[in-house]
Amino acid sequence: MIHLTKSDILHLAKLSGLTLTEKEVKELSYDLSSVITFFEELKETNTKNILPTSQTTGLENITRADKIDTNQTLSLEDVMYNANDNKNNLFKVPIILKK
Amino acid sequence: MFTSVRTTQNALRNKKISVRDVVSHFLTKINEKNKDLNVFLTLNEDESYELAKKYDGLLKENPDQIFEKYPLLGCIVSFKDLFLTKGLRTTAGSKVLDSFIPPYSAKVVDKIKKAGAIIIGKTNCDAWAHGASGENSDFGPTLNPWNKAYVPGGSSSGSAVSVAAGFNHVSFGTDTGGSIRQPANFCGIYGLKPTYGSVSRYGVIAMASSLDTVGHFGNNISDIENVFKISSGVDLCDATLKDEDKKQKDNITVGIPKQYFEKGVDQVVSDKVHEAIKIFEKNNYKFKEVNLPNTKHAISVYYIIQPAEVCSNLGRYDGIRFGNPRNSFGAEAKRRIILGNFVLSSGYYDAYYKKATQVRTLIINELDKAFDEVDLLIAPVSPSQPFKLGEKVNDPLKMYLSDVLTVPANIAGIPGLSVPFGIHNGLSLGFQLMGPRFSEKLIFKMARDFESFTNYKFEPPKF
């Protein structure tokens, strides 16, 4: 049985940009440990020299002309409409650097 | 008159009804019954009546050619709340987006509207399409119209129920690991998960980008087929799209993958698939057992690759440009983000993520080989009939395992169709047909044949 500890969960939460309650940490540690333990069954498969698959279309390098399509362009008003906090058409973001 | 798109269009042609009558028929039913089932999160009443007025005018002016220009005229549709609809709230079933008003529409929304369909509303779903029961919606679960103590399946829960309950003709959903086929199966209707890369996903809130597909629900195969014809095709916005059509043939050989009938699949479910096979055999369909031993690894592969892609796609929700802050994510989204970051994190990447992408190759190769021998596959959709609300909600692993028969199609990018077939203990049963990439037409043919072999007529649930 693989066990994700409280500090594992807290580390992953930090990577994920999530804040968790004490109760959530406990539940996640329990639930995810059982899910990850289930994954152990993959070890029995032989994947030597098998290429990984990241997509199934077989398409490569799909491009289009590098031209502005005005039908696909949003107005400034539309772009700002859903922002919780904005000023002079700028998004207000939380401070991440402190003096 | 309102059951299928075809019967509605015939009634419009014969001037028995107006488009306004069609809209009002469905909206009246929704307004009366939606609260019992919790299907719609947002209704689009004003625009629906406005468009009805426009189409009624056009019908009067030019009744003969109008259906050529608007092949879906009179068709009332809804969209899972994962599809962006300009000016109409889109939540993804999550509190993070509870008041988000999209500034543009998904390509498929535009396409369907341009074909004359009227969008009546946005349907409930598991938040971010994470779930197999509809219970993960931050707006409360949708209930199964056959028996309200049971789940309707998920994640496209509201879309499936909207069609089963007769709230609209057709509803669009997304299928990343079974989210169309399984709720269709649980609600007694058709549900199509097309080939990966056949329907544009531009403007559809992404869950797991190498697995996500856009498809739809209907109560008869002809509606499914016609809507697919209109919704599929290349645009310049989703770079994974491809126009391809597999060659048609008359004598179809169908594979029965024995691993899809093994332990864990309820007797009543597999018996029903075998009953369908007998009907096909009586009508000259040939069947052959095929061996897909790597099917047993599909759940692990899926629940590694999918959360890895989920954690990346949900990274964009920062509550700054739109939506609420990340602490508004519900329990299941948090679980998948954390799991995704675990399988991708250094030290674990090779053992989990890389391994899963390699086993994905094995699963694809095995299916390709099977399709050298047979044209299509027939299998159960879900290992069980619908389960009760609350039955699996506290056991994520148990919930994940119920996707075992649907995830292989997503892993391989192949199409699958849920076909309804019979009722047991008041709840629906059915089977799925799968085929090689871009074999939709062959799947439709087999499903159409089944409709005629069984004299299929949609019998709606009483709720």
From TrEMBL, chain A:
<dbReference type="GO" id="GO:0050567">
    <property type="term" value="F:glutaminyl-tRNA synthase (glutamine-hydrolyzing) activity"/>
</dbReference>
<dbReference type="GO" id="GO:0050566">
    <property type="term" value="F:asparaginyl-tRNA synthase (glutamine-hydrolyzing) activity"/>
</dbReference>
<comment type="similarity">
    <text>Belongs to the GatC family.</text>
</comment>
<protein>
    <recommendedName>
        <fullName>Aspartyl/glutamyl-tRNA(Asn/Gln) amidotransferase subunit C</fullName>
        <ecNumber>6.3.5.-</ecNumber>
    </recommendedName>
</protein>
<dbReference type="GO" id="GO:0005524">
    <property type="term" value="F:ATP binding"/>
</dbReference>
<dbReference type="GO" id="GO:0006412">
    <property type="term" value="P:translation"/>
</dbReference>
<keyword id="KW-0808">Transferase</keyword>
<dbReference type="GO" id="GO:0016740">
    <property type="term" value="F:transferase activity"/>
</dbReference>
<keyword id="KW-0648">Protein biosynthesis</keyword>
<dbReference type="InterPro" id="IPR036113">
    <property type="entry name" value="Asp/Glu-ADT_sf_sub_c"/>
</dbReference>
<dbReference type="InterPro" id="IPR003837">
    <property type="entry name" value="GatC"/>
</dbReference>
<keyword id="KW-0547">Nucleotide-binding</keyword>
<keyword id="KW-0067">ATP-binding</keyword>
<dbReference type="GO" id="GO:0006450">
    <property type="term" value="P:regulation of translational fidelity"/>
</dbReference>
<dbReference type="Pfam" id="PF02686">
    <property type="entry name" value="GatC"/>
</dbReference>
<comment type="subunit">
    <text>Heterotrimer of A, B and C subunits.</text>
</comment>
<keyword id="KW-0436">Ligase</keyword>
<dbReference type="GO" id="GO:0070681">
    <property type="term" value="P:glutaminyl-tRNAGln biosynthesis via transamidation"/>
</dbReference>
<comment type="function">
    <text>Allows the formation of correctly charged Asn-tRNA(Asn) or Gln-tRNA(Gln) through the transamidation of misacylated Asp-tRNA(Asn) or Glu-tRNA(Gln) in organisms which lack either or both of asparaginyl-tRNA or glutaminyl-tRNA synthetases. The reaction takes place in the presence of glutamine and ATP through an activated phospho-Asp-tRNA(Asn) or phospho-Glu-tRNA(Gln).</text>
</comment>
From TrEMBL, chain B:
<dbReference type="InterPro" id="IPR004412">
    <property type="entry name" value="GatA"/>
</dbReference>
<dbReference type="InterPro" id="IPR023631">
    <property type="entry name" value="Amidase_dom"/>
</dbReference>
<feature type="active site" description="Acyl-ester intermediate">
    <location>
        <position position="179"/>
    </location>
</feature>
<keyword id="KW-0808">Transferase</keyword>
<feature type="domain" description="Amidase">
    <location>
        <begin position="21"/>
        <end position="443"/>
    </location>
</feature>
<comment type="subunit">
    <text>Heterotrimer of A, B and C subunits.</text>
</comment>
<keyword id="KW-0648">Protein biosynthesis</keyword>
<dbReference type="Pfam" id="PF01425">
    <property type="entry name" value="Amidase"/>
</dbReference>
<comment type="function">
    <text>Allows the formation of correctly charged Gln-tRNA(Gln) through the transamidation of misacylated Glu-tRNA(Gln) in organisms which lack glutaminyl-tRNA synthetase. The reaction takes place in the presence of glutamine and ATP through an activated gamma-phospho-Glu-tRNA(Gln).</text>
</comment>
<keyword id="KW-0067">ATP-binding</keyword>
<keyword id="KW-0436">Ligase</keyword>
<dbReference type="GO" id="GO:0030956">
    <property type="term" value="C:glutamyl-tRNA(Gln) amidotransferase complex"/>
</dbReference>
<dbReference type="InterPro" id="IPR000120">
    <property type="entry name" value="Amidase"/>
</dbReference>
<dbReference type="GO" id="GO:0006412">
    <property type="term" value="P:translation"/>
</dbReference>
<dbReference type="GO" id="GO:0016740">
    <property type="term" value="F:transferase activity"/>
</dbReference>
<feature type="active site" description="Charge relay system">
    <location>
        <position position="80"/>
    </location>
</feature>
<keyword id="KW-0547">Nucleotide-binding</keyword>
<dbReference type="GO" id="GO:0050567">
    <property type="term" value="F:glutaminyl-tRNA synthase (glutamine-hydrolyzing) activity"/>
</dbReference>
<protein>
    <recommendedName>
        <fullName>Glutamyl-tRNA(Gln) amidotransferase subunit A</fullName>
        <ecNumber>6.3.5.7</ecNumber>
    </recommendedName>
</protein>
<feature type="active site" description="Charge relay system">
    <location>
        <position position="155"/>
    </location>
</feature>
<dbReference type="GO" id="GO:0005524">
    <property type="term" value="F:ATP binding"/>
</dbReference>
<dbReference type="InterPro" id="IPR036928">
    <property type="entry name" value="AS_sf"/>
</dbReference>
